[in-house]
Each structure stands twice: as structure tokens, then as C-alpha cells.
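Entry 14. Ran structure prediction on the chain below.
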Amino acid sequence: MRRPKLGFAGLGWIGKTRMYAVRDANAADIAVLCDPADPSTCSFDELLDSDVDAIVIATPSALHAEQAIAALERGKAVFCQKPLGRNADETQRVVDAARQSDRLLAVDMSYRHTTAMRAVKSLVDSGDLGEVYAVDLTFHNAYGPDKPWFYDARLAGGGCVIDLGIHLADLALWTLGFPALANVTSRLFRNGGHNVEDFASARIDLANGASMHLACSWNLPAGRDCVICATFYGTHGSAAAFHNVNGSFYDFVAERYDKTRSRTLVTPPDAWGGRAIIAWAEQLAQSPQFDPAIDEVVKVAATLDAIYEAAR
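Output, C-alpha cells:
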């Protein structure tokens, strides 16, 4: 096993949090830092020229695809914050570059790594719920993003759907085994005076017969900091739910519902924030080669594209 050397591009809150997670887990060596806001760090070109094995990208969304492709073409593995691309075509180009260079590529779909969500997926996988026929998905953030580029569709790719809805679509499709889309209807609302949506609702019918109902928003008067929930309803009269506690962005429970009865499966605390990057770093240490599982992010991106297209 070779210990990977990592470079970090983008040292905002997310970038630093993921860097500290790698450091605390002793999962890799942190070798090179890059952030245009910090003159003591190197440029992205210098990062590409360095001898790091992989680059962690936590820059604004408009840079993700370009920087990831540049890194992959230089033979570096990549771990990128979501979204990997601003649409499915851009996302596909990054995945194609990873496949061509035979380098490991991963995206920080962090909620998959919560203990609560894994308990829900395990329950669905077991067949105890029967066949899942409906999924309710919610992510309401009582605050809007604090950086102006989030509100520019050219830079962000969209508003709350690509920022928050991406997690919901990923959780549902991942849990259900990535069935194909059959039909999508949606409505987008722009209440904040920006050129991107700050509230969205969508119905996503899947080829396996299940239906997903998705709602997400920024600045919604939710009565708490946020509402995050994914509930899977099965034909055996049971459901499995993943949801946050007391408006927390970090604390989640998993529950099973049987008619009028509920049973708690998982409760906080759960230090899940850095698990995605740690898992990637551990896989990188075993092999830097391309992992076809990354094709899943293209399917998620295509789902978001369908939501935007249906609203037009």
C-alpha cells in the first residue's frame, strides 16, 4: 500500500474541513495547498506541476469540471466537491477524462456516509419494506448561500436544485439502485430576486414504477435552521426514514415505520462529515485506477437536468 500525497485546491470552510478530516484520520499526506485568496499558497498550475498523487477540489462550482479534467489529464486522481459539473454533459466530460487517464475520481456526496442513511439503505436492500413505490425527499435551508456566485446560473449551474436537490436525488437513486427515469414534472420559483431558483418541487417517475417527490429551497421560513428528510415507502406497509433532528445540519436519525408504529434505528452523534474523502483516500492508497462507480454522478446530474428542463 502506497501512502498518497494530496494537494488541496480551495481552502474555504469545506476545503479545510475535508483537509482536517484526512489529517485526523491519518489517511494521506497533505503535501500542497492552493487558494487564490491566500498568497502563501501555490497557484493551480503549480499544483498541477507538483508531485502529488491526487487533487482535492473545493473551489466554486464553475471551476470544478475544468480543474478536474486538467488534473486527470496530468495523471492525478481527483476528489471533488459537488457538483462535479454544472450539467450532465459537463459531468460526463470529467468522467470520460477519468476513464481515459485511468485515474480514480470521486465526488463528495457526503450524506451517503451518514450512519442513519446507511441504515435506511440496508433496510431497503433487505426487502423488509417490500418494493419501494414512493420516496419523499426534502431539503429546506432557512439560509441562502453566502457567496454571490451561487446566485449566478452561469457560475453555479442553477440554484437550490443543484445545491441541495443534488443530495436528495443522489440519496434516492443510490438507495434504489439507480433506476432509469421515466418522466419528470417540476416547478421552480424565484422569490429572492436572483436569476436562479430558491424553491423547487418535482415529481420524478422511475422506470421501475416508483415515484420520487422532491422539494428543496433556500431562505424558506421553516421554523428551524433546516429540514432534511428522505422517506422510502414500501408495499409491505412499512417505510424507512432518514431525517435531521431539531433543525440540525449534522444530526440525523433513521426510523422504521409500520402503519402507526415507529421504531428508531439510529440516533446521533455521528461524525460523518469527512467519511467520503477518507473512503476515497483509502481506496486511492489501494489503487489509483478508475472506478466505474463514478458513472452514478452522471445519472444524478441527468436527473437535475430533467428537473430544470421540465420547469422550462
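The CA atoms of residues 148 and 276 lie 27 Å apart. Will compare against last week's run tomorrow.
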